[in-house]
Structures are given as structure tokens and as C-alpha cells.
Amino acid sequence: AADRHRRKAMRGQPGELDSYRGEGGTVYPFYTANEQSFDDDDTPPPTPMWSNLPPPAPPETASRWKAVRKQISVAGRFWSAGQDRAEEAAVSALSELLQGLVAQGALSLERRLVEHRDTPPGAVWPHGWPPRYTQRVLQLPLTEASVLDLVADLSAGALPPLQYVAGLLHAAKASLAQLPNVLRHDVPTGCAVTVVGDLHGQFGDLLHVLRSRGFPSPTRPFVFNGDFVDRGPASVEVALTLFAFQLLLPNSVFLNRGNHEERSVHALYGFQRECNAKYAPDAGGAAAYELFSEAFEHLPLATLLNGKVLVLHGGVDDEMTLEQLERLPRKEYAVNQANLLGTGRPGLVHPHMRARLAEIAAREKELRPINSALWNDPCAEPGVYPNRYRGTGLLFGADVAAGFLERSGLGLILRSHEQVPEGFHWPYGPGRHLATVFSASNYAGKTLNKGAYALLGATGSRLSDPALSPLPLDAAPGAAAPAASPAAEEEGATAEHPFGGLRFVSFDAEELPRLRVSQRRHQLVASAVLAQRDELLAAYQAADRGATGELPVDVWEEETRRVLRTPPMLLPPMRCFLLGRDWGGSPTVRYQAFLGRFRLAVPQLAPLLPYRDYLVLLLANLDAKRSGAVSSRQFAAACKALHSQFGAAAALCAKPEEVLAAMGMAAGRGSREG
Q1: DSSP 8-state symbol, 418
Q2: Alpha carbon 2 to its chain's center
Q3: Is the peptide bond before 421 cis (omega within 30 degrees of 0)?
């Protein structure tokens, strides 16, 4: 299966950097001239694409560097994860500006809904790609055949028409609204429930899980533990599939809410843009996004399995109880300043939720457990601490998790919310209190992490039970057991408890060539150098006591690593990329020349760099039709709002016409023409 996924991964887009894995695991890069697909016969790409590259390294050389490559991969993975946490924290900071401007009356951010009408056949995506829409008509109640037809269409890249989507989401909203905050399910004897973590719009990972375990059925229950959308390219497909299965099998498919199933989050992290691309706003797509958002608000908060295993997205806190979680008004929850718990920053609030802030603030303490269930993360230290990485929620230690389990009479917390290298992790030690399961492999194309899902058997089940085997459920009777998977070799991949046997199965469905992950890290490092060039220059000058303008390579590397806070193993493989071809392996680095390699294409816009995210967010909220365009008057209003908020630091924004002119002649011409 792993080999098949590698072969399927060798698909290029026009002009895109791709790779071919040769003998011995060596990756050969090549540029695809046109779209191609290499099937299961392992046919190599055409000779001209890779014949000019060096042959594979001898086995002993590859073996020698295997451990080093693994260390570099792990170091890069954790550094990339740190960058993502910083991005999460920035989201909360962005709303401080929005709230201040609205309070001052400087800007109106209320959205207008576009009249709901069906997407006409042959509609064109805003990006110019012709989307394919089926002509299916929704018939309720759903049948197994109709749901499988939907999955088959989505797998083939065909979307249902907007009228179908609207009917499905209305039905899902009505069904979810009837459910309690905490769902309950006892796994039938001889069966196992599959718990799936974050999917984040990675439809390939969802299909892999369904191929591995089979489609949901009364004897094959599933729990999907939140964060269905954002970051990945197929959030619409993932959400539609899950809602359809939940409507078909409400007693066997359980959907928990994640922190990304909230307007203020998925408006920023890609789901809103994806809805606009797949269902154009001027053809009713705005209504599709609103219907998704309303359905998300009714998602339950947790699922209790076998009366002892609580499955929720985030975590717990030192006061939370299961009874509290059960009685809260989940539809009233929004990420807001009442939930930031001492971080000192107002929270992120979507304009649609703003009218309810006063009511939400009045119920702050009562709604705190919802914030914990969606946002909290485990940590090594005892007690609870504000989670400054994410900007909201808490970090909680093993003592807090154990206290919650004791207060609620439970045995285990199964949560998601964090990308982990193997797809699952026991933060407090194997078998203790809490486990994380994350199902988006190679998350967002940034890392090489595995995905995983969890299998929980009936009360008293053993790991030897066939239902807990990692072998696909539809395998032929008597099939030989597979060789031990990487997950089975990891400590904590299996555990037996009185409430049922537990097994984690890792996978790598969305396999990406290592070269693409390397490019992503190069981009992150280059962005960090650009953002911190002044700090880097000061560090280099302090280390250059002779004022020679040069530093030994090891000193340059140490100062760069210290300022950028990168792991030690990350920079050495990037020397040629960072220093350029002219460096040529010299023992010294001319640091002014190094910093000169990283500059903005339009230097005049450098003062705007610290505020670019604020400007983009303001423009997105002014784009009421979600068309991807604003008028020059709206652009000027956003720039002046930034100037009023940040003063002299954003002086460039005081003259919007100069900003547009600096961006290019076309932008300047658009400004003059109104």
C-alpha cells in the first residue's frame, strides 16, 4: 500500500516541481512539461526529465546518511509546527484591530448575504478552472446508494449543485440541533469504533480511512473528532461526506465540533475562500458558506464511548466536569475576549457574531468549558497556564487531566487538535490519562507527519479480537496478517483497558515528495530572514569584532540560528540555498551580501510589511460579495483605518494612492480611474 501511495504521489501539475523516487529511495527532481500520471506498473518518467541527474548513491552511502536525514526531518518538522503555532496566535491579534475600528465607528464590517439561487450548469470557478457539477437531485431521507454516489462523485472531482448542497446542509442542521452536547455510544460486542482526528480538508486522508476500515455501518461506527475544514484544498468535500453519512446513520456516525468549526477561524484559514471558489458568490455561494457555518454551530462537543472514553477535540481544565459540558448552550459559543484567559489580547470575533458578544460576555464562566473542549492542549508541567501560542485556551498538565477523569468517573480522554509526528501521541506517557490522534497526513503540505486513526473495541475486548486488527475489515477470510506496521512498532500504539482494547493505526495517504517539504522550509526560513533582517544585522555586527564585514561560517550559522530560533540541524543543509551560488563553500560569509539576497520585490512597501495581514483581513471583510475585489474607495478606507490605528508606524497608509502606485502601474491606474 505504501508503494502504491508513492506511485500515486508522482503526479505533476503543469510547470510544477515534482520528483521521482528511484532505486534505494533516492529522490530525483524534475519539472513536468504537462500533466501525467504514473500507474501501478512503476514506469519511470521519460528519460529526458532525469537522465542529466547523478545516479543513485551507493547503498552504504545512503545508509550512512539515513540517520542524519531523519534528524533533519524531525528538526524541521518541529520548527514548522512552531511557525504554525505563531500563526494561530497571530489570528487572535488580528481581531484586536477589527474590534477597535468597529468600536470607533471607523469601519463597518457587517456582511451582506447574497440571494440563494442554484449554480447554473457550466459555471466557471473564479480561478478560471472549469468546475464539474453533477445534475443530482437531493432526495430525503438519504439512502446508502445515494450517499455512496455522492462520495464517488466527489472522489472523481465532481461537485453537487448548490441546490443539493443547500438541502443537505438544512437537513444536517436540523438533525444536529436535536442532539445533546455529549453523545453516547457503547461499542457492540465483536465490533470496534474508528476515531478519526483532524482532517483539515484533506479528502485523500478521509478516503484512505474509509478504504482501510470500510464505510460506516451499524456494526462499523465512526467518530470524527472535529477540524474537518481549513488549510487543505477539499474542505467542502470532507464536510459534505461527513454530513451525508451522519444523516444516513445518526446512531453510528458521530461528529464532534473542532476549533476550526467556528466562523472567526474558518473565515481566515481557507474554508470561506474555498466555498467562494467552488460556489461563486454571485451564483449563491455566499449562502452556501452561511449554511455550512450554521450547521457547524450545532455540532456536538464530545462523544462518550463505552461510558468511559471521552472523545473531544481540544482538552479539559481544572474546573471542568462532564455535567457542565452537557448542559451548556453550544450554539452561543464564539471565540471572544472573554475566553482569552489572561493573555491580554481581545479575541477573534467574526462580524456575524458581534451582536451576541454582550450576551456571551455575561455568560463567560459558563461557556469556559466549551473553549477548553475546543482549544486546550496538554503540557508537561502540572496545573493550567494560558496558551500564548494559540492566543486562546489553556495548557493543562497530567494532574488536571487525572482530576477531570476522577471528577467525571471516566477512564481516558481521546483528543485531537495537535499535529504529531506519528499521527498519535501519549503526552503523559503510554496509557496514561490522555492520547492525541491526528488524521491529516503531511499536514497542509508543510511536514512529513503521518496520519492516524484509533480503534476502540467493546468493553472488555482484547487486542487479539479481529475487530481491532489493522487488517482492512473487508479482507478475505483467512487472509494472512500483515507485517507489523510502523504504528505497531511505536510505544503506546496499543493498550488494553477494562473499557476496551485500544489500537492506533498510522498511515501516510497524502504522501508528498520530500523535495516539496524542503521547499516549504526554505520559504519559511527566507520569510523569517526578511522579517528579522535588522535583528540579524545587529547580531552579525556584534559578532564581527574586527568590523571586517565577514564572519566564519560556523559563527554566521550560530547567530542566524539564535535570532531565527531554528533547531541546530535545520540550517546546515540550507547553506547553499541561503548563501547562494557565489558563496562556493568559502570558510567565511559576507553577511551584508547574505542579507541583500532577501528583499522585497517592491522596496517602497517595506514599511507596510508588519501590517500586511491586517490589511488583507480588512479588505476581505470589506468585500461583501466575496468577489476577491474591492473598490479603490474601500481600499483607501482600509489603509486610512490602519494609519489611524498604528499612527506613524504605518505612515505609508496615510496615502493609499502611493501604496497602489508602488504595487504597480496597473494598481495605480485602477486607483486613478476609481
Answers
A1: S
A2: 23
A3: no
pLDDT score at 511 = 54
pLDDT less than 70: residues of the chain: 1-131, 281-286, 335-364, 471-491, 510-521, 568-571, 573, 581-582, 624-628, 664-674
**CA 333, chain centre distance (Å):** 21
Among 125, 169, 167, smallest CA distance to 293 is for 169
Q: Name residue, grid cell 457555518.
A: 293
Residues with catalytic function:
260
Write the CB contacts of 115 (distance below 8 Å, at least 6 apart in sequence).
284, 287
Where are any strands of DSSP class E within 9-95?
A: 11-12, 17-21, 27-31, 36-37
Output the pLDDT for position 276. Answer: 84
Cell representation of residue 8:
500515486
Q: Which amino acid is at 129?
A: W
Q: Where are the alpha helices (DSSP H) in 497-586?
A: 514-531, 533-543, 553-564, 575-579
Three-state SS across 272-334? HHHHHHHCCHHHCHHHHHHHHHHHHHCCCCEEEECCCEEEECCCCCCCCCHHHHHHCCHHHCC
pTM: 0.63
Name residue 349's beta-bridge partners. Answer: none
CA 287 – CA 280 distance, rounded (Å): 10
C-alpha 361/C-alpha 271 separation (Å) is 27
Quick one: cell of 604? Answer: 517602497
